[in-house]
Amino acid sequence: MPINVYFTVHLHVFAMRTPLLGRSGMKNSEHNIAYLNGGPTNEPRSFPILHDGNELADIFAGADVGLALFDSSLALLACNSLYRTLCGYLESEAVTGRSLEDLMRITFHRLNVPDAEIKSKIEKIVTSLDRGSAYTFRYNAPSGSVVEIRRRRLPNGTVVETARQTENPVSSIDLNSQYELIAEKSRARLMHALDVMADGFALYDSSDRLVLYNKKYVDYSPLVADIIMPGVAKEEILRESVRRGAFNLNGRTPEEYISWRLQRHRNPTEPIEVLGADGRWILITEKKTDDGSIVGTRSDITELKLREMEMLRISQQLHAKNIHFDTALSNMVQGLCMFDKGQRLIVVNRRYLEIYGFSADVVKPGITLRELMEYSVSLGNYTKEEAERALTERNDPARLSQRTVLKQRLKDGRVIAVMNEPMPDGGTIATYEDITESEKAAVMMLEYTQKLERSNRELIDFAYVASHDLQEPLRKIEAFGDRLQKKYGDILPDDGKMFVDRMHNAASRMRRLINDLLSYSRITTNAKPFQWISLNELVTEVQSDLQIRIEENSAIIESNDLPKIECDATQMRQLIQNLVSNALKFRKPDQTPIIKIHGELQNSAIVGTPKNLIVTISDNGIGFDNSFKEQIFTIFQRLHSRNEYEGTGIGLATCRKIVERHGGTIEASGIQGEGSTFKFTIPQTQSTKEIAA
What we know:
693 residues, alpha+beta, Beta-Lactamase, 5 domains, 24 strands, disordered N terminus
């Protein structure tokens, strides 16, 4: 009875060829890994265990294909004559007990396969005969026929072969070559897929030894590239990496770092980030498979990490700035609040809440301006009508687009200065300052200033009236003195003549004093409008007026080219004449007086204001103690007695008043025995409104 045996062949090849790169980048070695596994799609029928060889031979003899049965040790149990014929075996060669290896060796010899290759080929074939595996191949048998062999190893280890003649041509490649070709193609496809990966890839078996990896995996560990190969333990790679300084240990000891990495490797959960000694950040992601293997990937996240650290740095800076901003807001002496274009509160500080007595639970970001005003009305800061008026003004487009300053007068009498500043996005920022005390001080200052102005006018009027009214009795004293001297001068005793002379001298001093007082008071009461004049011409006129005194003292007056200015010409002439006269008066008797007049224009420190004229008048006279440089400008103040130097003590006070009327300042400096310097500074042009004297 014929026996049909069906074989289904499943061949799974898992192989790779991985070049390992050392530090020099050159290929050091080549590793081949092949793993075969397979099994039938349907369980085959089991052969009966027969102890009668003749019965088994009878069964095989009736088969329409060549049949051979080998036990689990690959020893031949039985075969039929068709099997011997198709495979080219002699009856004495294919006998019970003959091993499959011996039969394959006979076949290879007859196919003229070199002896050096036979052993390796047989080993590969035997190795592939795992229990439950099967495969089919064709070859030109020694009989000359194209024979198709189906070889299958059953789960119990028994091997069944069937042989039949086929008309299909046989490939020139034998079984082993076919196997290698398939394996090589599988390896090529696998390695191409792995090598084009952007990440490093590695597979460790359940014993934690490296099975499979790609080139990128080696690139991420250049310091230990020479030891990365199949079969090496993960711990060995890790320890050598630490020893060679491949990682930043982040303060851990080498053993602590290795223990941490191995624990995370063998019990993978979340990905970990590792910093390499070369500055690269590597993200390691590992998963455990069902059979205990570990598959992992490595990704270069350096750029991502740098961006992350930069974002962290920026975030920390912003956080610090926010802290500084909050601190600054909290410590401002002014209240501050900011509204968006929808009039909703964005920012508010503590001082603003204190000024209006607001609760931080009510006045906080998000509250509208109307709600805030209604809350303020409820606290009694101002009336509802005042709040509505303020809201109307606040929502005026013209006011929203420009800075506005106003004063709020609260019900409790306080005055709040409010400055609203528009923002580019349509919102506003406002500052609030309690100016109640300064307002009170301003009112008091205004009242005080008005009192001073009245008092000053009264004094000026008094000085003018008094000096004018003193003229008449003074003239009588001088007139009667002259008559007394002319009519009775010859008969007066010496004492009488002395008394008359002293009366005349006193009257003359009184006359000069009255004239100087009149001149001082007229700086304001008899002032003339400002006009443009040439200072060069004015200095020439002063020298002409003082020509006799200049010639008497052989004085030398030097002056540079002076600019034109806008001023009261009479007063400016009086100012320069007083200062030059002063230099002539306080000359050294044994030295020629030298008086230097120098003037120049300088830009003002305040942008948009006119240039300043600075005039310096210096001499080589007797000078003065510099500690009295302010005192000499006080009216009636003298540094010398009338017996030493004539004068009323009003001249320099008049000079200061003239300079102040022109919006300037005057100062003096001196060195005893060397000379004095007077410097006054006034604007080159005057405003239409004169400065009050």
